[in-house]
């Protein structure tokens, strides 16, 4: 399914709070924070000229977040960044002065962090980031996971020392339970979704994602004309769309939000003209995007700056994974998890449909930017779908898998 943005706020200016959170100055501060991370390295930008030619477009570039900070996902940029910011702010309140990232390892700041507990709900990747951030600063983490999160993903979070809490139901059920328990125990919720009265911390999480956009803009030979980004609650899509809108203004690229058909909360919100919760049905293979209620902050941004919304089916996501794993001659292989290649799935679906091509203005001059939002964060599931272990696919491009 495909629809153009017809919201009354479409093409209006971002809310000042969102403009401040996602602007160039904020993005520069995120990158400065990253410079203090021991394992920080810029992730690759991969060109796929063979696939671009097959799809009848000018260029495709994929930002490969499967290499980010040892966590294999763009989420590494958000949760840990928010945790660090919150610790520095609390230390500032306790010490009565501004505390800089350069002081993170000092005894005074570590003592503050040790008295803090951060909590969140997760499908897997955000929880890993929050847990890693807590471990870095010496805080405690409690991570809530719903019944659909695999044991492999739970173990990947637990290795950072987090306390794991299983919750019956969906991701949205785990969000509510995490918020309830945190309020009861005085913990700090570090969520990547927002709700009425809870916006600032999710905005910090989204702010962290702007680093990948700044890196990509420096590496791209020309600015993109089109962007397809997958969405769960909408955080990554809103962060990218919002930053690009602020960077390019009226000349910004055409931005399309891609939802799983089985969890299309942003698509249905766009159709309704307001945030809506969709019914929970059959699970989607796009596990990291299986969210049934949009983030209110993300919706506030996307209602203004997204140009279109679309859905992709299970087979589309699998086809994108396999396309990236077994590329056309001359294109490098990319290890993309079940949710990682969904932006590409949207592009492939759009390019094959004359009506969508026309609506988006996709043609032989188009320069498309995509994000591989995750690598093989569940290696067993990846091999089951692709037919090869992630290390074998990575070896085709001379890469190494970092888990």
From TrEMBL:
Q: Which Pfam families match?
A: PALP
Where are the annotated coiled coils located? none
Record has Isomerase as a keyword: no
Cofactor(s) needed by this chain: pyridoxal 5'-phosphate
Domain named Tryptophan synthase beta chain-like PALP is located at 39-356
- Name this polypeptide is given: Diaminopropionate ammonia-lyase
Question: TM segments?
Answer: none
Provide the taxonomic classification.
Answer: Bacteria, Pseudomonadati, Pseudomonadota, Alphaproteobacteria, Hyphomicrobiales
* Molecular function via GO: diaminopropionate ammonia-lyase activity; pyridoxal phosphate binding
Q: Respond yes or no to whether keyword Lyase is given for this record.
A: yes
What keywords would UniProt list here?
Answer: Lyase, Pyridoxal phosphate
Task: Write down the superkingdom of origin.
Answer: Bacteria
InterPro entries reported in the protein's UniProt record: DiNH2opropionate_NH3_lyase (IPR010081), TrpB-like_PALP (IPR001926), TrpB-like_PALP_sf (IPR036052)
The protein's organism comes out as: Mycoplana dimorpha
């Amino acid at each position: 399914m495909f629809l153009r943005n017809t919201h009354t706020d479409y093409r209006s200016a971002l809310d000042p709070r969102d403009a401040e959170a996602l602007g160039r100055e904020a993005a520069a501060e995120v990158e400065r924070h990253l410079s203090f991370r021991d394992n920080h390295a810029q992730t690759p930008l991969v060109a796929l000229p063979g696939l671009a030619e097959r799809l009848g477009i000018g260029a495709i570039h994929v930002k490969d977040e499967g290499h980010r900070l040892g966590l294999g996902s763009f989420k590494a940029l958000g949760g840990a960044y928010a945790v660090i910011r919150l610790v520095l702010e609390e230390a500032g309140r306790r010490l009565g002065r501004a505390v800089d990232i350069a002081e993170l390892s000092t005894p005074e700041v570590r003592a503050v962090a040790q008295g803090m507990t951060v909590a969140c709900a997760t499908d897997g990747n955000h929880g890993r980031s929050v847990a890693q951030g807590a471990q870095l600063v010496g805080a405690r983490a409690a991570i809530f996971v719903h019944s659909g999160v695999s044991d492999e993903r739970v173990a990947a979070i637990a290795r950072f020392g987090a306390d794991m809490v299983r919750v019956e139901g969906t991701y949205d059920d785990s969000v509510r339970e995490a918020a309830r328990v945190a309020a009861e125990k005085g913990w700090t919720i570090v969520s990547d979704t927002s709700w009425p009265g809870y916006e600032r911390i999710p905005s910090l999480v989204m702010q962290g994602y702007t680093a990948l956009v700044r890196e990509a803009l420096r590496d791209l030979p020309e600015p993109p004309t089109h962007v397809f980004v997958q969405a769960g609650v909408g955080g990554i899509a809103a962060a990218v769309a919002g930053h690009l809108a602020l960077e390019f203004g009226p000349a910004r690229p055409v931005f399309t939000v891609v939802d799983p058909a089985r969890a299309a909360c942003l698509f249905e919100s766009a159709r309704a003209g307001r945030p809506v919760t969709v019914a929970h049905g059959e699970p989607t293979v796009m596990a990291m995007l299986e969210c049934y209620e949009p983030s209110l902050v993300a919706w506030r941004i996307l209602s203004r700056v997204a140009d279109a919304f679309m859905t992709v089916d299970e087979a589309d996501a699998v086809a994108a994974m396999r396309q990236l794993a077994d590329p056309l001659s001359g294109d490098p292989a990319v290890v993309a998890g079940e949710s990682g290649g969904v932006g590409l799935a949207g592009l492939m679906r759009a390019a094959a449909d004359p009506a969508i091509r026309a609506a988006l203005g996709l043609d032989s001059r188009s320069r498309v930017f995509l994000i591989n939002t995750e690598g093989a964060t569940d290696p067993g599931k990846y091999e089951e779908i692709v037919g090869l272990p992630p290390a074998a696919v990575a070896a085709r491009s001379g890469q190494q898998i970092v888990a």
